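Below is how a single chain appears once it has passed through the pipeline. First comes the sequence as given, then the structure the pipeline wrote out for it. We keep one example in the README because the format questions we get most often are answered faster by looking than by reading.
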Amino acid sequence: MLRIAITLLVALASLTATAQEVLLRHALSGKPLDALATLVVRFNDEQKGRGRIVLQDLDSVADRQQLPGLALLNDDDAWAFFETRPRYKHMADVMKQEKQPFDAGRFYPQVADAVGDMFGRPQALPLALALPVLFYNKAAFAKAGLDPELPPATWWEVQQVAGKLFDAGYRCPLTTSRFAWVHLENLATQHSEPALLRGAKGERFAFNNLVEVKHIALLASWYKSSYFKYFGPGREGDAKFISGECAMLTGESALIGQLPDDLRFAVGVADLPYYEDVYGARRNNVIPDGATLRALPGKKSDEYKLMARFVAFMLRPEVQREWVRQTGFLPMTPGAAEGANVAEAVRTRLAAPRQSYPRTRLDFGRQRVREILGEEIDLVWKNVKPAKEALDDAMRRANAVR
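Resulting structure:
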């Protein structure tokens, strides 16, 4: 009997030693991190020794060039995550190889479009997407004599509100996060302008149309008058809004689920403003974007098997609903929205058909065009270039590297 027990212990120890591990690198904190950690523990328990997912906080990584198996990131942050721009392994291929279902038809059309390749196959799991919105400090509105329940609907109304906030003592009436996505990509879709134009020589980026030039010129005038402050192309504006320094913020809807419990003021959330005087304008025609779960290349077959099982786990409707409720990220599928307290307007938008003209794709081209836009727009704030010249130069540079 003792010999049998010893044999079983040795076998168990051997199994534990050889159990497959896959690192999942992320930059989450607060409630989203708690939600992910809880789900990872549940998934690992289900594996019963067949392997486990190990969370790897970005700040704790000594060598970022040592690639993990999975990464939850916005592609704009690839350099910070890996100190390089890796060529990811197509998630649809990983799932097909491991005989796990991963049909784009399961996703909301707009969600599928956010991660689809040119053939519509999902390149990544759209796990942490958001829509662009306007956040505002209700206490600041009240102090400025504004109705806290009546946020500005158009950019001209934003200008009027910013002026009153400035007169009330706020030296940062408006800031932004994710500038290129909010103020150029979504501005284009709201006003029926294609992000990409198809021609005889293929597709080219087109973020220098009249409405974009008009908008950047308006923001530049606000920047000079201190109605608008710019802290960087990423999420730098979030902290300025949360601290109370800035009274309004354009950014990701998921921020509402990440606000600290001890926030000193009530936060209002409104649709992203638009120009009502532009022909074909549709205020709610915004596009989701955000962090996606990507598979990295060069791993073993058993590791990809574990990754595929984890993706299949995260796609379960009950798991998705819990994830959406805990984090504020967008539901991936209609089944996830049911019972997850998702606004009807959000469901309607996600269910809208894909547009006849394409959006920028989840690949190196999108990363690079956003970087170039950030570089050129920075010259507008510094009064080195006017809006049209900066956007024309950005498009010339972006299309040269496609």
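The chain is about 45% helix and 15% strand.

See the next section for the split statistics.
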